[in-house]
């Protein structure tokens, strides 16, 4: 599809400049030797999409910079550091799946989540306060039915998120067990089959219980609540798929609005190495 093209004509005789806009297929020819033309080759219709893509990239770079500073400073400030693996199933909230503009309410399949976690807990009187950096990847396929089609359409969707969270914990007497919880934010890279892929914001809540396994290891059981942005396809395709959170009975829709309301509830088990 041809976008609009802007060009300007300048006259050396009169010293005037005129701005033109057209379909990109036709533009006026110079009618005199003293008239020249310059073209802006970026289609006008594409500019909002190009500018929109810059914002999440900048946000992600800022988040990565903050995470790097925290990771570099944590060993000097923390009394306890842990790194671990996390895995478990992900239950998704209902989603609005748009097939070529026809919206259907669907419940995605339960999918897997895997992740890496690094946590730093404070010294002395700040031992209850911690910072956690998570790298998470999950997959939640959804099945929809294209308009005027008898067969179902399986749509694969994945998300990879980097989250920085502030945690608090409460110990259980002398057992070494503790309960913890926190809130965080970051960025998520979303891919949707037959749809779009790109970066956006991500928010998360976490709560769980940690149980010591000797002196060097710890078992975690936790529940998370994750919110990511919508996935809207920008290019015209034979089958175009857009994914969004459904507005009914969704706290994220009420709090963050219709473009940041795709929700997930992972139920996870993790093992940490304590050092």
What is the C-level CATH assignment of the largest domain?
A: Mainly Beta
Number of strand segments: 16
The description of the largest β-sheet is:
8 strands, antiparallel, barrel
**Percentage of β-strand residues:** over 45%
CATH architecture of the largest domain: Beta Barrel
Number of helices: 2
- Counted up, domains total 2
Cα shape? elongated
Give the SSE layout.
Layout: E1 5-11, E2 17-22, E3 35-40, H1 47-77, E4 78-92, E5 95-99, E6 102-106, E7 111-122, E8 129-139, E9 142-144, E10 153-155, E11 157-171, E12 178-192, E13 197-213, E14 217-228, E15 241-245, H2 251-256, E16 262-274
Antiparallel strand pairs: 1-2, 1-3, 4-7, 4-16, 5-6, 5-15, 7-8, 8-11, 9-10, 11-12, 12-13, 13-14, 14-16
Q: Could you explain the architecture of this structure?
A:
It is a single chain. By secondary structure, the chain is mainly beta. It has helices at residues 47-77, 251-256, and strands at residues 5-11, 17-22, 35-40, 78-92, 95-99, 102-106, 111-122, 129-139, 142-144, 153-155, 157-171, 178-192, 197-213, 217-228, 241-245, 262-274. It has an 8-stranded antiparallel β-barrel. Strand 12 (178-192) and strand 13 (197-213) form a beta hairpin. The longest helix is centred in the first third of the chain and has 31 residues, at 47-77.
Brief overview:
With 275 residues, the protein is mainly beta. It has helices at 47-77, 251-256, and strands at 5-11, 17-22, 35-40, 78-92, 95-99, 102-106, 111-122, 129-139, 142-144, 153-155, 157-171, 178-192, 197-213, 217-228, 241-245, 262-274.
Essential attributes:
2 helices, disordered N terminus, 16 strands, mainly beta, 275 residues, Porin
